[in-house]
Amino acid sequence: MNTGRVIAASITAATAIFIAIGTLHPGKSALEYSGGKNLLRTSSTPQAAVENLGDEIRLRAWKAAYSSLANKAEFTQSDFVHDLTGYYLSRAGIGLSTLVHVGGDGIVGLPLPAVVRRFEADPDTRCVAIFGEIGGSQEERVAEMMASGEVTKPVVAFIGGRTATQGVRFSHAGAIVEGGRGTHAGKVAALRAAGATVVDAFDELPAAVARVLEG
What we know:
- This protein is of the alpha/beta class.
- Helices cover 34% and strands 15% of the residues.
């Protein structure tokens, strides 16, 4: 995305961590977009100048990885996964237009479908990568958007929690399978049926994204 265009990710936590990227008052833009909700993380390249809590080591890693503005957007539900996914995609030579991390709470202020709509409308984004997890129905809703034609850009996804036990939380508060809803198998099946590329292991994600962009 161009300098100053920021997507704000929001969660229900009491403490907000705001990351502003760009030069055209991105902080104000993100706050206005969020409607006052708490903010967690957003990054846009190649203008990345600030990272979580001013972590200098992490910032240097990001600067080393970001080579140029490119055309893949990433969505995750975990702060650590946000960093890790972006870093390994960059190391594989895949440029990142925007990264968004919304958290894994049971109630998310900025859900995945809303983020994907933004990616769909962004001319700098050609592919959407999703690191999802069990619980909820966000990934299934994106599959419905793909099936209806609302989302036309290619989607590559990895869904965590394949071996999780029903009724047991998997890392995040919202990552829980209850009553057969939000299962790993259900999310994978819905996305694949809608035309998404779903990888079975996280380390397969960069190569899958590269194949989509090359195609």
